[in-house]
Specification:
mainly alpha; 2 domains; two-stranded antiparallel sheet; 8 helices; YciB; cell inner membrane; transmembrane; Inner membrane-spanning protein YciB; transmembrane helix
Length: 203
């Protein structure tokens, strides 16, 4: 099924909106505590509880408007439900803080598995957006697999050794900037291995 055209601003809002809302809500509620059913929950737990339906709603809207949701977005939504649910159920913020570790470990593992088979699974997902020669896809996939593995390790270090405030800032801004910076630094590969369009006969 071909994807539908969607306003880029709307698409960006649906993809990044939940993260922005999570950060804003955390800033407002981080120093507060709430009691439900005789159990006390801090602001982080409450914000996590709200983040779960929000990510499901925005993912559903993205699918409805564009007719397509990537496997990465589906995996992210599933892990948010699982680890966010455990965080709220057990009243333990460690589970939600581990979520990025699981996400990036999963992505690195999938890409690494493809590389072991001599394939670039990244190419299957992004070939229409960035037509590259096979060598280019393999280089980009190796780099991205290592990058995701590095982010998984970094997330573990930060949430285990730093404050919740530091982790929220890292999750909201650090991870987003890191992913953006990674692709910005791959211009040499994209240029060197770009597939040149063949001129039509008789043109």
């Amino acid at each position: 099924m071909a994807g539908k055209k969607i306003n880029p601003i709307v698409k960006l809002g649906l993809e990044l909106g939940p993260i922005v809302v999570f950060f804003a809500a955390y800033v407002m509620l981080r120093d507060k505590a709430f009691s439900f059913g005789g159990t006390e929950y801090d602001g982080f737990i409450l914000v996590t509880a709200g983040f779960i339906p929000l990510i499901l709603i925005t993912t559903g809207l993205l699918w409805k408007l564009s007719g397509h949701v990537s496997k990465m977005q589906i995996a992210t939504a599933v892990l948010v439900v699982v680890f966010g649910g455990l965080t709220v159920w057990l009243n333990d913020d460690r589970f939600f803080k581990m979520k990025p570790t699981m996400i990036y470990t999963l992505f690195a593992g999938v890409l690494g598995f493809g590389l072991l088979r001599g394939q670039s699974y990244l190419q299957f997902v992004m070939e229409e957006m960035m037509p590259l020669k096979r060598e280019g896809w393999m280089i980009l996939t190796r780099r991205l697999a290592l990058f995701f593995a590095g982010l998984a390790v970094l997330n573990e270090v930060i949430w285990r050794t730093m404050s919740t405030d530091a982790w929220v800032n890292f999750k909201t801004f650090g991870l987003t900037i890191a992913v953006f910076a990674f692709f910005m630094t791959q211009g040499g590969v994209l240029q060197k291995y770009a597939v040149e369009e063949q001129p039509e006969d008789g043109a």
